[in-house]
Every structure is written in C-alpha cells, then in structure tokens.
Amino acid sequence: MQTLTIKDIARMAGVSPTVVSFVINNRKGVSPDTRGKVLRIIEQTGFTPSISSRRLIMKKSFNIGIIIEKGFSPFTNLFHFEIAQSLLERSRNYGYNLIFTDIPKTGPGIQLPGIIENKDTDGVIFLQDTPYLILQEIENRAIPCVVIDAHPGSEPYLMVKADYEQAAVVAMEYLVGQNHQDIALITSTYVPNFYTQIFSGYRRVLAQNGLAIQSGWIQTDATDERTAGACFDRIVQSGRLPTAVFCATDLFAVGAMQAAKAHGLKIPGDISFVGIDDIILSQYVEPALTTVRIDKTQMGGIAIDMIIQAISGIRPESVTVRSDQLIVRQSVLNRKETV
To answer: What is the DSSP letter of 287?
Structure first.
C-alpha cells in the first residue's frame, strides 16, 4: 500500500497542503467546517505525517539541540541525567527530536556545533552555565535558546534555574535546628556564581545564629566524589572535627561520607551530613542522605515548554524552580537527644 502524504490528504479534502498542515498542528486560520472535514479524512485513512513532510511545509527542522560542555555527559552525571530524561519525555509531546552535542571548554574563537552551523535545529537548550560569547552568538543568529541549571550572571537569557542560596539556607537551618553549631562546608568554586550562592546561604545562617566560621572547615575544591572525599580529609586534618558537614551537592556528600567511614567515623553518631539535589543515589547510600530537593524533572519539562514557546515567537519568562523542599532521611543526628 502506498504511503499517504499531506498532498494526498489535501487532494481528498479539496484544500491546499498548507491548510492540512494548519489542521495537523492545531493552528488558527482554518474554518470549523474545513477543519472537521480534514480531521475526518485523517481519521478514516489513519494518516500520520512524516517528519520530512512537516519540515517541508512548516519550514522547521523539528530538532532541538541539547548543548553540553565537551567532556561532560548528562548520562553519567546523575543530576543532569534526570533532567535529560525529562527533556526526552516532554519533547515527544511536541513531535520534536533532541540532538545531544557539545562545545569545547576553551579555545580561540567561537566554535559552534554542526547542527547550528548547518541550521538543522529550531532552538537550543544548554545544560549549565554557558560562556557569554556563545550565548551572544546564538542570539545574533536569532536561534531560540534556554539555559538549564544556570546561575545568576546568565541574564538576560531565558533560564530554568534553582535558588541554591535558598537551598543552602534550608539545609543549614535544619542542621542548626538539630542542635549543630560546628558545621563544615564542602563546595566548589568551579562555577563561581554557584559557589557564591552556596556560601552566602551557609554564612547567613551561621551569622543569624551567632556561630563562627572556621577557616579549616571551608573546603572549596570539590568537583566529584573523589575530590569531595579529599576535602573531608583536610577537614579532619584541621585539628578539630565538626559535628556536621553541609555539602553543596549530594554527590559531594556521598564522597565525603565514604571518606568519613574510612576515618572510622560513624554516621550520624560521630558526624552528620546534608546535601542538595536529591539525586536518586541519595536514598540508597548508607545511611540515606538528608538533602534539599531540586526538581530535575520539572526543570527539564519547563525548559522544553519554554523553548517551544520561543520557537513559536512567544518569549516566556525565566523560571526558578522550588528550592526549599527538605527531604529528611538518616544522615543527621539531633545532638540534643544524645545529651
């Protein structure tokens, strides 16, 4: 049986292919009678438009580029893996394909992926902060763009972000509420604006409660579990052990907890831990990690909705997802109950 095309449906309905395309894409400009006639023919024939037909008539690629930094994979980073899953699921609702590609970390000039140079994408979504020159070049080419998990400093570009200062405040207030006064910090300066938010929340809660900052307890060199473990080692070597450690990400907390166990410390009996993100791993470590949830599924879904709006000529507002949901598990001890 010969495969039907939009032109075949148009001929059967006595209309132009453009009208059929408007009906398929639920666009305005078609009378109710004509719309109903086209829909009946589509239902009777079981017609499904091919992607090539849609591209030809709508003058779109129906591709969205997901741009990551070279050497970084959203499929090995658990935080961004959940975002990537959500991107894939939501994009299907709009009939769009996702193309994952990368840009160099550094280098002379601006190097853009082939899908952008070849105009084979209707919009792009960046995971994490992206160099200003790249974003500016995308804007100069009039390509709709959204940045996920961006941090202050990426304005005026469209962003889906978390409020990490708020998350840090929630984590720290919980520790103080559990009668911890000696609280260390493991974070990263790799993304300066992320560090600023985390440290601001940490410092604010300490100041509000009249607690001092111990320089040996502030560790800023974490980038993964291994380096977070090394940060904890340096905290131990500082001479006095804190009662709790606030980690800027769950992954840092996992690495620090492993290091604590290697030092013979019991969690939470000897030392408590809290993180941020609520990645799936956080509920399976021993003990399960208390954390502040960042809704990754929501971030991915919102980003797709935003890029589709932008592709359609509607400029949405940037969105900050909820960043104050504390998930209490077993990694924090209430010190008052042990006195």
So the answer is: S
